[in-house]
Amino acid sequence: MNLNPYAPEDPTSLAFTEPWEYELAFPRDPRGPGIARTTLRAVLDAHHLLELADRAELLTSELATNSVRHSKGPASVRLRWTHPVLRVSVTDTCPYLPLPSAPPSAEAEDGRGLFILDLVSDEWGGCALGDSLLGPGGKTVWFELVLKPATPPPPPPALAA
User: Fold this and answer.
1) Residue-by-residue DSSP string for 95-156
2) Nearest 5 degrees, angle CA 75-CA 39-CA 57?
3) Distance in angstroms (rounded) separating the CA atoms of residues 67 and 109
4) CA distance 155 to 160
5) Residue-range domains of the chain with CATH
6) pTM of the model as a whole
């Protein structure tokens, strides 16, 4: 029994449709994208959203890897669930937004990130972040995956008269 009237009640698990948000910050280190993928999968598993995990991991890996390659500072990955949409945002210190280009050739070693975002995500975008008292701005690139409703069962057969 808790005798402290100011102590919060024990938390209960959020309902599936309740919104939630997680954020992971990581340094400019080549291990960061792998850690982001592992964390993302753990969060989606805990919230029973493994149906979105493969696509979310692929896209998060693309964006986090680009952050490590093209920025000079730390990055962060934010997961936000607002039923039925999962939004994953990657923020870094590079101020330049990626520019769409023609599909890469089969021999190209890079340049597939935005092409993959277009193919795999339900929606994506980005925005520049202005300079602040804490330092230079950067950018955020995000994607959304929509949880498709389960296929409804077929209607029962009509009864013969």
Assistant:
1) -PPP---SPPPTT-SS--HHHHHHHH-SEEEEEEE--BTTB--EEEEEEEEEPPPPPPPPPP
2) 85
3) 17
4) 15
5) 20-102+110-146 (3.30.565.10)
6) 0.81
CA proximity to 61, closest of 31, 98, 104, 22:
31
Per-residue pLDDT of the chain (161 residues), as tens digits, is: 567 777 677 778 888 889 999 999 999 999 999 999 999 999 999 999 999 999 999 999 999 999 999 999 999 999 999 999 999 999 999 988 887 766 666 666 666 778 889 999 999 999 988 876 766 689 999 999 999 987 555 666 666 55
Q: CA-based Rg of the chain, rounded to a whole angstrom? A: 20
Q: How far apart are CA 91 and CA 77, in angstroms?
A: 7
Q: Cα(73)–Cα(29) distance, rounded to whole angstroms?
A: 9
Query: Looking at residue 49, what DSSP letter applies?
Result: -
- Beta carbons within 10 angstroms of residue 116's beta carbon: 17
The pLDDT of residue 108: 60
